[in-house]
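Annotated sample (chain length 318).
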Amino acid sequence: MHSVGRSWLLLTGFVLFYVVYLLFGALVFSSLERPAEDKLREDVEALKLEFLNHSCVNVAALEGFLLKVLTANKYGVSVLKNASVVSNWDLASSMFFANTLVTTVGYGHTTPLSDAGKAFSILYALIGVPFTMLVLTACVQRIMHPLVLAPVGLLHRLGLRPRPATVVHFTLLLLLVVLCFFVAPAAVFRELEPSWSFLDGVYFCFISLCTIGLGDFVPGTQPRQKYRSLYQLSVMFYMFMGLMMMYLVLRTIHKMADLHGLTTFLQLPRCEDPDLDEDQKPIVEDGQGAQAPSFRTEETSKPLEAASQPSYNTINTS
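Output written by the structure step:
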């Protein structure tokens, strides 16, 4: 059991370090970008006053004003007074930006203004993107048994054949993911975002969890939104859990393709699975006293029986 505890402790350390890494990025981005944003905001206000003081405006002056306003709006600074009250680089917003950076979602609604911020974004993503993939992979490996292997084994013990059991399980898993990570969040976004419809919420969830990140819908950007910081942190948590479940669905599809022979037919690599994860072993070998029956018989070369360890890769389909 010591190896199991160390494994879970290591995973907890990964997740905590991931949170600390996001917080570190938020502090750096906020310190680098907030002064640049304040200067841009002052320039926009000065440009607005200068434009209003003109008694007669020609086409060239109007086009120049609009060009500068659109350029500032690209960096999240609006000429509208109500839209420029809250900074785009406070701690919560900077952490939200760091999260979209390392998860490769990248909405593009807020981008670095300073050269230092752009350079730090490169270095930060260079380390953060692979580390985020590592954390997601480790989390998925931990939930594979309770959400994939155990349900498939249960369906198999209830009398379903291996292939129908995997199809039924995948259908139920997909339904669960759609309800919990698309339909329910979309209903919540419709209530919290006045300008969003239910379809807009579903669209945002799909674009985000597929890491497409078009940026046409971004939560927490409405002027004077209540509990904006808490809202952004909640969206970050949702994105992490959603990406983890999407990765789990992809792993399940790959394993199901292995069982149905699709990967062999297309000459693709199989989704290899260890015989037993450390946290799935029912017996701890202590070297003292009798051991409980193992999955292997005396003939170590004999393959596992179908019902001995329910798994996509250990079910014999004969």
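Annotation: The chain has a mean pLDDT of 82.
Annotation: The longest helix spans residues 2-53.
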